[in-house]
Here is the input.
Amino acid sequence: MKYLAYCCLAIMQACFMQAALAEDSASSANSNIPTLEKDFVSAINKFSKEQIIAQFGEPAKADDVKVKTTGKVIASIWQYHFINTAGSYYETTELDFIDDKVVMVAFMNNDGAEGPESGQQYQVPK
Here is the structure.
């Protein structure tokens, strides 16, 4: 009887865990990317390139880093204009990707032609 109770508890726990994980992934897939600076940095690495394009459109500038022998894209640098706080905070936001995940965010008070050194940079939490 004791083993039957443990078995039932294990099955119920597995069901609750699966439901919680499904709800969490569904909520992140349906949620919008925040545009306030620190919220943006905290959340951006949870979104795929497709989700970012769906919310902000195609980047104003995109550069890809490819493996010379295979042509596979291993990293990308995207620049968007006026996506943070309706354009009143940073003119350019740069997103650096490794594979499909954002690993670096740079906010710039220029059009991005000068490079990220002139703006505020953040390491995205892993």
In short: The CA atoms of residues 67 and 73 lie 7 Å apart. Strands lie at 61-66, 73-81, 92-98, 101-108, 120-123. The longest helix spans residues 2-30.
